[in-house]
Amino acid sequence: MPHHLLLIEDDETAAYVTQRRLIHCGFTMDLHVVSDGKEALDYLACAGRYTGRQTGNPALIVLDLKLPDVDGFEVLKYIRSAPALFDIPVFILSASRTEEDIYRSTLLGISKYLVKPLAMSEFTPAVDKVLNPGAGDATESPRR
C-alpha cells in the first residue's frame, strides 16, 4: 500500500526535484503537492476545495518555510496544534540556513531540518526511517 505524503513547496523546480528523488529512492507513495501555505491549511483541514477529501492524513509532510500567503511556521503551528495531525512527522526543506529558522522549527516539533539543495545521502535515510520504521538504523527518529 502506498504511503501518503504531502509536499508543501512553492517552487515548481524544487517540488519536481523532491518528487523525483522520492521516486528514484523506490518509495511507494501517493504524493500530493500544494504550492502555498493557505492551500496547505485547507488540505490538512479538509476545507475549501479539499472539503470531503477522503485520503486520510499523510504519513509524512515535507514543508518549505518561505511560502506565499501563509508561511511554513504558521502551517507547522497548525499541524502541531491539531489533535488529528500532531503526531505526523514533518521535515522542513528550506534554503534557509539561519540559526533562527532552525531553532524556531525545532521548537515547533519538526522531525528533521533539511537544507536545499538537498543531499540524497541525508534525505533518503530520513524518509526511509519514517516510511519503514524498524527497517534499519537511519537518522534521528521521527516525532511520534
TrEMBL record:
For the Response regulatory domain, which residue ranges apply?
A: 4-131
Q: Which SMART domains match?
A: REC
Under which name does UniProt file this protein?
A: Response regulator
PROSITE patterns in alphabetical order: RESPONSE_REGULATORY
The protein's UniProt keywords, in alphabetical order, are: Phosphoprotein
In terms of InterPro entries, this protein maps to: CheY-like_superfamily, Sig_transdc_resp-reg_receiver, TCS_response_regulator
Q: Which residues carry this modification: 4-aspartylphosphate?
A: D64
Q: Does the keyword Kinase apply?
A: no
Which organism was this protein described from?
A: Noviherbaspirillum pedocola
One GO BP: phosphorelay signal transduction system
